[in-house]
Amino acid sequence: ASVEEMTNETYKVYPNPVKDVLTIEGENISIYDHQGKHMLCTMVALNKAVDATYGKAVAMQVAAMNPVSLSESDVPEDIKATEFKVAADKAREEGKPENMIEKIAMGRMNKFYKEACLLNQEFIQDSKLSVAQYLQQADKECTVTAFKRFTLRAE
Questions:
Q1: 25, 10 in Cβ contact below 8 A?
Q2: How does pLDDT run across 63-109, given as a tens digit for each residue?
Q3: Most CB contacts within 10 A, which of 13, 14, 92, 111?
Q4: How far apart are CA 109 and CA 81, in angstroms?
Q5: Which pLDDT band holds residue 49 (cuts at 50, 70, 90)?
Q6: How far apart are CA 122 and CA 134, in angstroms?
């Protein structure tokens, strides 16, 4: 089936048939296979049926930018804690005053969220928009509900 025909179902990618199965569920799923070589593939589920170009563009975004999560609230707590510690330690190493460390670390965390959270990321096809703003051009309520990224390359 073509990518255009792949909607309203659950899709599975089998990175390692013995141990890993990636699944995504939703009614509006887009799939992207980078260069058609099955080395880097992504799946994106949208909450609304919109033109297929929107789903494909976001699936390409996932391939290119490798987000950690959908949004700030979805970032695992251990990753938040690690990133905050790294940001605070870096501020200390730079000789920043101790009373400013937390504010500096929070600023760096905001930058991390902008880079690591799919909906907050700068949209690669139009840097004036975030991914969320791009999807809202299709439908004011359109958003990503799930995504998966699979690669055979060492990253």
A1: yes
A2: 999 999 999 999 999 999 999 999 999 999 999 999 999 999 999 99
A3: 13
A4: 10
A5: very high
A6: 10
Asked which of 21-35, 40-54, 131-145 is least confident by mean pLDDT, the reply is 21-35
- Sheet (strand 40-46) strand order: 28-33, 40-46, 144-151
Alpha helices of the chain — where are they, by DSSP H? 52-65, 77-93, 101-116, 131-138
Q: Which of 1, 30, 24, 21 is nearest to 11 (CA)?
A: 24
**How far apart are the C-alpha atoms of 149 and 64, rounded to whole Å?**
10
Residues 94, 89: Cα–Cα separation, whole Å: 9
